[in-house]
Amino acid sequence: MTAIIRFDYICILLGVLTTFDVAAQNYPLKPVRFVAPYPAGGVNDIVARMLGQRLSSAMGQQWLIENRPGRGGSIGTDFVVKSAPDGYTLLHGGMGSLTLAPFLSKVPYDALKDFAPITLTARAPNVVAVHSSLPVKSVKELIAFAKTRPGALSYATSGVGSTPHLTAALFTSMAGIRMVHIPYKGGAQATTDLLAGQVPIGFAPIASVLPHVASGRLRGLAVSSLQRSPSLPNMPTVSEAGLAGFEMNPWFGVLAPAGTPAGLIAKLNSELVRILRGPDIIAQFAEQGVESAHSTPGEFAALIRSDLQKWGKVIEEAGIPRE
To answer: In the prediction, which pLDDT does 17 show?
Structure first.
């Protein structure tokens, strides 16, 4: 009797696995909703649209980009969490909503438990930039200048809890300096005031400041990633320029709701990684100051876990209040 029960159980299990395999092979059978939880025109949205266009061509169904911004990306992120785990609603998530927002406000999801990570897609480091009138030409000079003026210098970012803000928080902490944070409601306004000299220092994505650094209106001192950016190969990293080990390299990636079949996750990972390795997408990303990235689902999950530990500590030490 026991042998018969075990045999029946094995048959059922094999049937379930076969169903998942067939579902993965036939996927997608209808358009895929690809949620970008940030405003249109930003890096997250641009990357999602580039990928969506290629996925539509490669997989035979439309990938519909749906912007659901708000509360640092947490509104769109929560929308995906509450969607069916069938591969037809996916998130182009970001570091902000997944590993920073949980420490800054109450979010209705758990970044580790509520998602099935698929792959990283891109990294978008920030630049430490200063107005051309500020008499500093390097990170070391900026730190020395700030130390003689504690609390007198101000810096602009795209908002409280944004990746530029956290870049600045880590920078001031490691440098042992004190500056005043001027948060804006977006990167465009922050860059406008930095260009006008209303704020002497800015922490911003490469794409926001690249043309102004090229024109000489802003002076770029360093990039926040551990390696130099292909978009600014002659600009040192913050680590090279004086704060050894400094790294803030904001990332984006594709995630599905927890419970999405493993076969679908594997198929999506394979297709996305193939696209992300292509020289055309690498070149297009570079034009936006973005670096193409890819990973296994396990590597992506490990990154989320380690970043939650790292940035939770930075936010606490910086005294950034919860909403």
So the answer is: 52
Q: For residue 41, give both structure tokens.
A: 């025109």
CATH superfamily of 2-124+250-318: Bordetella uptake gene, domain 1 (3.40.190.150)
Q: What CATH number was assigned to the domain covering residues 126-241?
A: 3.40.190.10
Q: Supply the pLDDT for residue 15.
A: 55
Using alpha carbons, list the distances in angstroms from residue 70 to 75, 97, 143, 198.
6, 10, 34, 27
Instruction: For 71-121, give the DSSP string.
Output: GGGHHHHHHHHTS-SSSSEEEEEEHIIIIIHHHHS--SS-TTTSEEEEEEE
Name, in order, each residue with C-beta under 8 angstroms of 257's C-beta and a sequence gap of 6 or more.
80, 81, 82, 83, 84, 85, 89, 114, 115, 116
Q: Which residue ranges in the chain fall short of pLDDT 50?
A: 1-2, 16
Cα–Cα distance list, 309 to 71, 207, 302 (Å): 21, 28, 11
What is the pLDDT at residue 43? Answer: 85
Which stretches within the chain are classed as H helix? 2-26, 43-59, 74-81, 95, 101-104, 139-147, 163-175, 187-196, 206-215, 238-241, 262-276, 279-287, 297-318
Six-digit token pair at 102?
């949980």
Q: Which of 257, 277, 295, 302 is nearest to 51 (CA)?
A: 277
Count other C-beta atoms under 10 Å from residue 18's C-beta: 10
Given this chain, do its domains 2-124+250-318 and 126-241 carry the same CATH topology?
Answer: yes
Q: What are phi and psi of 4, to 5 degrees?
A: -65, -40
Question: What does the alpha-carbon distance between residue 187 and residue 185 come to, in Å, rounded to a whole number?
Answer: 7
Six-digit token string for 225: 């990633």
pLDDT of res. 301: 98
- Tracing tokens 């909503």 back to the chain, one arrives at 97
Among residues 91, 113, 85, 110, which one has the least CA distance to residue 99?
A: 110
What tokens were used for 266?
Answer: 């594997």
pLDDT at 12: 54
Helix (H/G/I), strand (E/B), else coil: 33: strand
Question: For the chain, what are the domain ranges?
Answer: 2-124+250-318, 126-241
